[in-house]
């Protein structure tokens, strides 16, 4: 009986040794992992349904760059708030924009598959724009007046890319977000 117990204990130790070995021969270095976009956090993502245009779902995606965290109280960090408003063909089944490329246009040109340009639709903050912050304090902003927003993936792993032009500075900027994207339903 002692002999069987000894062999079982030896077998257990050998199996434990195999599970502790890694099959990855490369060092674990987090600095070598590739960054998947300059949009670091989802500040908010809203679904408004057909509130502005019948047959069109209205989505507002709000991201932050660098170290800026709008969900902290008080707000901390520096960077940009990037607001991307998208109109997608109506679908009652899914609170997520249809996959595709959305061209940023003025409000009077909205058709299926467009994004809203600027930030002043009837005196509101609708539309695509950016705001800048330094040490948690706002330092201004700029309107996005043209460009494209591309939506790919699923709510669990969304890929949002934007190539945009700013109105005041006339700069062209590229943004990318990869990660989960769940919309808060404000359509009711």
A few lines on this structure:
Helices cover 10% and strands 44% of the residues. With 188 residues, the protein is mainly beta. It has one domain (37-185).
Low-confidence stretches: 1-34
Helix content: 10-25%
Order of helices and strands: HEEEEEEEEEE
Strand segment tally: 10
- The radius of gyration over CA amounts to 24 Å
Number of domains: 1
Reading side by side through the largest sheet, how are the strands ordered? 3-5-4-7-6
* Main sheet makeup: 5 strands, mixed, barrel
Q: How many helical stretches?
A: 1
Strand content: 35-45%
Overall morphology: globular
How far from one another are the termini? 71 Å
State the secondary-structure class.
Answer: mainly beta
Task: Write down the overall mean pLDDT.
Answer: 78
Describe this structure in words.
The chain has one helix and ten strands, in the order H-E-E-E-E-E-E-E-E-E-E. It is mostly beta strands and 188 residues long. Residues 1-34 have low confidence and may be disordered.
Question: What tags apply to this protein structure?
Answer:
single chain, 188 residues, mainly beta, 5-stranded mixed beta barrel, 1 helix, globular, disordered N terminus
